Structure formats: structure tokens, C-alpha cells
Amino acid sequence: MPELLYNTQTSVYDDQTACNAGETQPGEMNAMTAVPFNRIVCGDCLSVLPALSEESAQFVLTDPPYLAHYQSRDGRRVPNDDHNAWLKPAFAAIYRVLARDSFCVSFYGWHKADQFLQAYRAVGFRVAGHFVFPKRYASGTRFVRYQHECAYLLIKGNPSMPDKPVSDVLAWQYTGNKLHPTQKPLSALLPLVQAFSRPGDLVLDPFAGSGSTLVAAQRLGRRFFGIELDAGYHAIAEGRLQPLSVAGTGRGM
Questions:
Q1: Cis peptide, bond prior to residue 181, ω within 30 of zero
Q2: Domain with 67 in it: what CATH number?
Q3: Which end of the chain is more exposed for a tag (fewer CB within 10 A), N or C?
Q4: pLDDT in single tens digits along all 253 residues of the chain
Q5: Which residues form the domain of 130?
Q6: Is there a cis peptide before residue 191, judged by omega within 30 degrees of 0?
Q7: Strand partners, 154
Q8: How far apart (Å, rounded) are the C-alpha atoms in residues 227 and 214?
């Protein structure tokens, strides 16, 4: 498998909670040095992804900002949720890093579906499916009760059909959003990791948040690599992964 490389010169958004180049860890990592597998780095995916080896990840499962100007009831926000300048460049970089004949699952904001679809297709992805996650509660109410999440199944090349195709309607369990304002439940992510990757594959999440995708990958015997821009959420994700790493998943190949 191609070696993963990382450049520590990350760009950041203008916020005091953002990671900066000097804080990217571990401190001994220099520009373009090999990155251990099974970890999450703190940085901007627009800077980190171009430094990863081409076609080095076997599956991408990610939850990017929905372009919704979202603010939770307790005042938490999502970085870069107020503009789409990052959207196409990020998915172009994701496409380059994803192995040929592989899958990407991307959550998205339904009200900006046209922008997400345009970005996916412009960089080379084809849409192969669509997931709906019905909720027992409403995230908000206006003209209707907003009571579901959704994600697209994207493909690069011509991947083989999954041995056991997963339903495109998956159950949703409320997490309480204690770790992140848009936290996704592991119960919704585990079937996706299992269906579209194999044990030992590298699962990439460039918008890692509190690390739920990485935890799901770890539990299913996949390697993982995550990127998170916000220093606080990055720390939460690291804390969730460390106990499992100590239990035996380790780092490296």
C-alpha cells in the first residue's frame, strides 16, 4: 500500500479554537514525513489531504459541514459551516487519496443537495446510492419537522458489489450530541464501514469531529486516519481512541 505522508504546514480558519501548524502533533513530525496509521491529526484537510499519498485509503466515511450556519441549543457551532469555498477542493482531494474502485459515504445538508452533488460529480465521483436515517425526534421544526439525516454513497471507478448489501434506510439512535453538536451514532456508522471496507483497510475521515468514524473503523479491525480542524473536538476524538489503542489495536501497519 502507498505510504501516507503528511505536511505539517496546515492552514486554519480564523478562530481561537483552531489547530495551528505549531500544535499539530506529534511535534517531531517534519514536513512530508511518514504518518503512523491509526491516528487523528489536528489540521485543515485542505492542507493535510494534498500531502497524503495518492490512492492510499480504501474507504472514506465523512460528515462535512452542511452549509447550514448551524448552532446547537447550547451555542456550539461547526467550523466552516457558513460558506462553501472548501467544498469542491476538499472532495477533489478526497477523490485523489481514495483508492480506485472504492467507496465514499458523505453526509450532507439536504437543503444544499445541489451544491454537494455538483462538487461530488465535478471531481469525478459517481452517485451509487442514498442513505436515509429516520429519527424519533425532530432536530428542528419550521414548514415540516426535520426528522432525518441523509448521506450519499459515492464511487470512484468500478468497485465490486458488497457481499451483503446494506439497507439504504438505517436506524438512528440519539447520542445526546454530548461530544459534538452534530455527533453521529456509532450504530449508524458501523454498518457502513462493514459493508464498504474490509478488515485491514484504511478508513479516512477528513472531517472527523469527535472521531465517531474512526472509532467505528477501529472496532471493526480497520486502520484509520482522521483530520479535525477544531482543537477541542480533536482532543475529544483522541481521548475516545486511546483506550481502544491500548487494548491492542496499536499503531502502524
A1: no
A2: 3.40.50.150
A3: C
A4: 444 544 333 333 334 456 754 344 433 333 433 445 899 999 999 999 999 999 999 999 999 999 877 676 777 777 776 789 999 999 999 999 999 999 999 999 999 999 999 999 999 999 999 999 999 888 888 899 989 999 999 999 999 998 889 999 999 888 876 766 778 999 999 999 999 999 999 999 999 998 999 999 999 999 999 999 999 999 999 999 966 654 444 333 3
A5: 5-249
A6: no
A7: 104, 127
A8: 10
Work out whether strand 5-6 and strand 33-34 pair parallel, antiparallel, or are unpaired.
Answer: antiparallel
Beta-ladder partners of 33: 6
- Residues facing 40 on adjacent strands: 226
What span, in angstroms and rounded, lies between the C-alpha atoms of 128 and 155? Answer: 6
Residues paired with residue 212 on neighbouring β-strands, in sequence order:
none
**Residue the block writes with cell 460528515:** 63
10 and 20 in contact (C-beta within 8 Å)?
Answer: yes
Place of cell 492510499: 56
Q: Is 38 left (phi over 0), alpha (psi -120 to 50) or beta?
A: left
